[in-house]
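R.M. (postdoc): so does anyone remember the format we settled on? I'll just put the structure tokens first.
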């Protein structure tokens, strides 16, 4: 630790103007940091201090008034002054016992000059020392940053960066990538590690000047933590600045490692494509996972197909893959990616409990949607289709094919959400299968033709009204509210629907058939022709 960059009360006691000064109280506080020197001759200092100032005073403001003197010392302690230096003889002849008692209680140094001193010379001397130290700190920090940047070009592991900051500060370095074990530089015994971890966890809940934390963010997510720990001396300003520079360098190195790793995964394309097509037996899949250092904790998996449009370039697509990987891994999945034209196929292997599998996928997608990268892609569009959830890794192809089916259905739907799950599509899956064997529009028109023809002839809103009325389970109040029309207008439209579809169109079987045919019509009609819902 760069102790010389932290001027303390003990350092000041050794300077030339303090040769005849005496420390009469608060000896245990002589390691307090001094950031400035301030002359005070008033009784209230609430708006005068920022903290860590050494106070010089003749005591003229509280002479012969013990209560004022005690109040002044309490204020200095409250506002974190470094200590109090008092010139004796001119206005004060002794320091009250009450002041000495309070100073000792709070480890607040009280220093007396037994003869007249020139405060201007003291302030000049100490301020010059502080300014020189600040200049030295800036110079050391700049040298550190330059050397660190040079090392970034050649180092192979983040451990080299941890060794570099340790060599500079000479205090305990603690590093942890999320969901991994703590790493200590220098290495210490397990019992010592456990002790520091317990202190660290307490420091996370309440401030401690012996720990300093620098979270490392990648893709808007906290990826790792860098911590410095000083057992004896409080963490100083120089240490915090070095920590900040190092955390930035670590983030750059870790991102570079992830980027290189992602590039290597391109070579896996053929094998993964075979997995998606169901070409590999379970034994081969397990061997592949072991080769890649992955020990599947469950056999649960799902395939996501991400379609994207107007992503700026190849580097942004790679970044998008990294973003998906990082977010899904933090939500308990091992991730494999296959890139094809304007889509990326993700195979997600579940590493946690199955009960909240779907919820974790939704949470991850929402995090990606709210990330700065996606928000900055103003013209880009992205849609995600999730296939079937499978519980055997050799059935990944089944999830893949159902994800492709979800993409096809998603493309046909009027309401465009950013993601759909195959298991939530229900009737649309049946309609999709029907579309391969019959003319869906012809089927839908058997029920809906009178309504469609009426709308075309009179530019009416009957089809929209019918769909909304059914969605609201026949509630006239809710329907009129959703359509933004008065009740009388709705009653007129319902009467017209009854005349076209029959008075029994709300009876169970017929109603179910009409609802189904509305979905069929929605699926079968090209999106550009769905005029009745365009303005909603």
């Amino acid at each position: 630790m760069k102790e010389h960059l932290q001027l303390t009360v003990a350092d000041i006691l050794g300077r030339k103007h303090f040769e005849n000064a005496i420390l009469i109280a608060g000896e245990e506080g002589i390691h307090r940091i001094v950031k400035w020197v301030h002359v005070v001759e008033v009784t209230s200092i609430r708006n005068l201090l920022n903290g860590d100032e050494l106070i010089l005073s003749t005591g003229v403001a509280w002479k012969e008034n013990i209560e004022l003197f005690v109040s002044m010392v309490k204020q200095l302690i409250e506002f974190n002054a470094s200590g109090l230096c008092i010139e004796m003889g001119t206005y004060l002849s002794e320091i009250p016992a009450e002041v000495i008692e309070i100073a000792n209680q709070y480890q607040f140094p009280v220093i007396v000059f037994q003869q007249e001193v020139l405060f201007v010379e003291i302030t000049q001397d100490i301020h010059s020392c502080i300014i020189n130290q600040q200049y030295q700190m800036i110079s050391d920090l700049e040298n550190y940053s330059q050397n660190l940047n040079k090392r970034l070009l050649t180092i192979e592991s983040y451990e080299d960066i941890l060794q570099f900051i340790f060599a500079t500060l000479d205090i305990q370095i603690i590093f942890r990538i999320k969901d991994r074990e703590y790493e200590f530089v220098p290495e210490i015994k397990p019992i010592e590690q456990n002790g520091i971890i317990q202190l660290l966890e307490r420091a996370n809940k309440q401030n401690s000047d012996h720990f300093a934390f620098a979270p490392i963010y990648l893709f808007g997510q906290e990826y790792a933590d860098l911590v410095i720990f000083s057992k004896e001396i409080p963490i100083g300003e120089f240490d915090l600045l070095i920590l900040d520079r190092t955390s930035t360098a670590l983030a750059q190195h870790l991102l570079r490692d992830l980027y290189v790793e992602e590039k290597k995964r391109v070579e896996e394309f053929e094998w993964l494509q075979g997995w998606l097509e169901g070409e590999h037996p379970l034994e081969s899949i397990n061997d592949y996972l072991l080769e890649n250092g992955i020990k599947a904790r469950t056999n649960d998996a799902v395939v996501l197909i991400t379609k994207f449009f107007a992503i700026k370039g190849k580097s942004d697509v790679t970044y998008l893959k990294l973003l998906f990987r990082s977010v899904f891994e933090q939500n308990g999945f091992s991730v494999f990616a296959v890139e094809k034209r304007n889509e990326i196929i993700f195979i997600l292997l579940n590493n946690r409990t199955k009960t909240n599998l779907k919820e974790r996928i939704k949470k991850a997608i929402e995090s990606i949607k709210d990330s700065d990268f996606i928000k900055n892609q103003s013209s880009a569009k992205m849609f995600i289709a999730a296939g079937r959830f499978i519980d055997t890794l050799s059935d990944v192809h089944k999830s893949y094919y159902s994800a492709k089916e979800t993409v096809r259905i998603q493309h046909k739907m009027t309401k465009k959400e950013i993601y759909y799950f195959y298991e939530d599509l229900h009737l649309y899956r049946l309609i999709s299968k029907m579309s391969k064997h019959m003319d869906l529009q012809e089927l839908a028109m058997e029920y809906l033709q009178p309504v469609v023809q009426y709308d075309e002839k009179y530019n009416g809103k009957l089809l929209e009204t019918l769909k909304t009325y059914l969605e609201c389970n026949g509630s006239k109040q809710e329907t009129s509210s959703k359509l933004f029309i008065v009740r009388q207008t709705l009653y007129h439209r319902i009467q017209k629907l009854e005349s076209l579809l029959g008075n029994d169109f709300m009876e169970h079987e017929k109603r179910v058939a009409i609802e189904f045919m509305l979905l069929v019509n929605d699926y079968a009609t090209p999106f550009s022709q769905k005029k009745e819902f365009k303005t909603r």
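R.M.: ...and that's the designed sequence above, right after the tokens. Also worth knowing: Residues 531-536 have pLDDT under 50 and may be disordered. Residues 129 and 308 are 60 Å apart (CA to CA).
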